[in-house]
From TrEMBL:
Organism for this UniProt entry: Sistotremastrum niveocremeum HHB9708
Alphabetical UniProt keywords: ATP-binding, Kinase, Nucleotide biosynthesis, Nucleotide-binding, Transferase
Protein family (similarity comment): Belongs to the thymidylate kinase family.
The enzyme's E.C. designation: 2.7.4.9
Protein name per its UniProtKB record: Thymidylate kinase
InterPro entries: P-loop_NTPase, Thymidylate_kin-like_dom, Thymidylate_kin_CS, Thymidylate_kinase
Length: 215
């Protein structure tokens, strides 16, 4: 008997302006074209629509000031408040393509100077993505792209630290679950590179979902 398939949990990560949102949307439409309209869903963190998300949004637009620890915990809470929705979708066979996740949480807060172990602690046990594709781009190139500098973290110096942290987070991910691609080429080239990694998951998965950063 064929085993029950669940949806795959795919995350795109990267610096600001690395093209994640464009690529996440393209990936969802590709999956829908292959498997049907209800087979895939786009998610984005931070999800600025919830009560917690609205506080994060105000912070990112520099409309309020919050202690670094406080905002870190709010970003994490914003992910936890959507865990039951993530699990329900995956169990229903829907593949989730998620624009940013806990790796951003850790990379940005650690870049601001918070201890790495403290940063990952609140996100331990979140659903672990089956695959994370990191869209790698130098902050200098990202800066040349439109709209850069509008929000709080869009500063070249900080983004440089964030990039180093992303690379070191990726090195600790085991079993091919973290893949890096060059995001400086054309939209079509980047799309192709992402698909190479996502295609094996396009039918969903049979394994159960693990807890992130749980040994
Ligand atoms: P975006 O909506 O993808 O442009 O992300 C908003 C900004 O917030 C971006 O500069 C990255 C940053 N960010 C995303 N997630 C987290 C997080 O969990 N923690 C922190 N400190 N920053 C985050």
């Amino acid at each position: 008997m064929a085993s029950q398939r669940r949806g795959a949990f795919i995350v795109l990560e990267g610096l600001d302006r690395s093209g994640k949102s464009t690529q996440a949307a393209a990936l969802v439409s590709r999956l829908k074209t292959i498997n049907g309209e209800n087979s895939a869903k786009l998610m984005k963190f931070p999800d600025r629509t919830t009560t917690i998300g609205k506080m994060i949004d105000a912070y990112l637009r520099s409309q309020n000031e919050l202690d670094d620890h406080t905002i870190h915990l709010l970003f994490s809470a914003n992910r936890w408040e959507l865990v039951s929705a993530i699990n329900a979708d995956l169990a229903a066979g829907i593949t989730i393509v998620c624009d940013r996740y806990a790796f951003s949480g850790c990379a940005f807060s650690a870049a601001k100077g918070l201890p790495y172990d403290w940063c990952i602690a609140p996100d331990k046990g979140l659903p672990e993505p089956d695959l994370t594709v990191f869209l790698d781009l130098t902050p200098a190139v990202a800066k040349l792209r439109g709209g850069y500098g509008e929000e709080r973290y869009e500063k070249e110096e900080l983004q440089r630290k964030v990039r180093v942290l992303f690379h070191s987070i990726g090195k600790q991910m085991k079993g091919g679950k973290w893949q890096e691609i060059d995001a400086s080429s054309s939209i079509e080239e980047v799309e192709k590179a992402i698909w190479k990694h996502v295609e094996p998951f396009s039918d969903g998965c049979t394994s159960s979902i693990n807890g992130l950063w749980i040994e």
